[in-house]
Amino acid sequence: MRMDVNLLDDLNENYKNKSPQNILRNSIQDVFKEKLVYVSSFGTESAIILHMISKIDNHFPIIMLNTNFLYEETIDYKKYLLKKFNLNNCKEVFPNKQKLKISDMNGDLWKTNPDLCCNIRKVKPLQEELKNYDGWISGRKSYHDGERKGIRFFEILNDKIVINPLANVDKSFVSSYFEENKIRRHPLYESGYLSIGCIHCTVKAISSDDPRSGRWINKIKTECGIHYNLKK
Fold first, then answer.
1. Which of 50, 91, 157, 222 is the most buried (most CB within 10 A)?
2. Residues with catalytic roles
3. Stretch 92-102: mean pLDDT, rounded?
4. Exposure pattern of 191-224 as b/e (b: 16+ CB <10 Å)?
5. 102: phi then psi, degrees, rounded to nearest 5
6. What is the pLDDT of residue 221?
């Protein structure tokens, strides 16, 4: 499905006062039909969109990018959420073994070139999977600030539609959603991990006001790269 900027602007205008649930449901059932996939980290807030999807279509496709460096707690949490929500179409996507053999034979590329590490383990595998879809759903939120501040519900990235149904929610919405729907938080959340990625590049959040302050600590890097324009 091709979409120009004007149509994208219309969508953002029409949905600016709609709930995340409404945006997600209409995107899946009406606007983009069967050409969408949810890319989930199964991190501290992923359960919200997973729960919403379960109320729409429990066979909706979900992708988890497994870098081979995920916390065991994240894998366990994924199993818990899929079972709790009866979601039965989740695919774990792994990095290309040949590329790892060439560029990261010892599994320590994250120390010297974290951007390339993310590219091999997340960006490239996702781009390969997205060939089967017109667009994908992301859990990004504006209140996470940084490069996520000001994101819109509907965007175009690398010729794909990206839908951010949670773009305008705040921390209060997130906390309330977990409580009201009786969803267990990620096992590492109570220990201070407010945003969780790979083992080597994730620590406890430095600031409770900045959920992503524990990612790539002491580095300029703030994103893995799956949200970047690859054509630049």
1. 50
2. 224
3. 96
4. eebbbbbbebbbeebeeeebbbbbbbeeeeeebb
5. -80, -45
6. 79
